[in-house]
Input
Amino acid sequence: MEAILQNIWEITTIYGIKAIIALLILFFGRLIAKLITKIVKQLMETSKIDTTIVKFVGSLTYIALMAFIIIAALGQLGIQTASFIAVLAAAGLAIGLALQGSLSNFAAGFLMIIFRPFTVGDFIEGGGVAGTVEEISIFTTVLRSPDNKTVIIPNAKLSEDNIVNWTTKGTRRVDLVMGIGYEDDIDKAKQVMADVIAKDDRILKNPAPQIALVELADSSVNFVVRPWVKSGDYWDVHFALTENFKKAFDANSISIPYPQRDVHVYEHKAEGGR
Output
């Protein structure tokens, strides 16, 4: 009987000490995990990373650290953790394969939020559509199209395509092609167009507008007209110049051959940068 009690005492002592150490690992490990998570969040906030990313990475860091601490505590109790780790790895792989599309969207959203190729309010073109950015989330980006439609684009599709940001530079060049008849005076036509441009206060002085003869076409002598404007004035100026050039040509007896050919047509971007 004494031997049995001795064995019970030894077992209790050994496993009691292991249990106490395991509890200490859990207790202090949890404190350390919270501290590391807090430091990670502070570093990301200092770098002005999006709040959504900060919260997600903070939660992911804490969960990963706690998983490591729990495994360490179980190992201290003598529990074989190799099979447990293998089960977690298999489950993680299965979940990763099942959520492959979502994870690719998440990764793309994560990178876009960090590197910021565009921000809310920018007018962009990407993923086969164009519109004003209304929201950038982890999985999708929401655009408002020029005709006021809500377009939700998966981040993976957006990041795989070329992204054109029409807002970020602050200015845009208006590209027009204006044609006159072969019998008309080239210098007079250039001066008429220059006068029309000079009267529009929305057109920037620097860079200077460009008016150049670009082509001797079958039925017209074509000029490229390239003034610079603020991004928000692009389409207003585009439409106004087209109308005012026509009126000025009529007033100065300069013919516009029919049909008028405009090689720079981006009607799908109408209202861009507003």
Q: What stands out?
A: The first helix runs from residue 2 to 46. The first strand starts at residue 123 and ends at 126. Helices lie at 2-46, 51-76, 82-98, 100-115, 155-160, 186-198, 234-251.
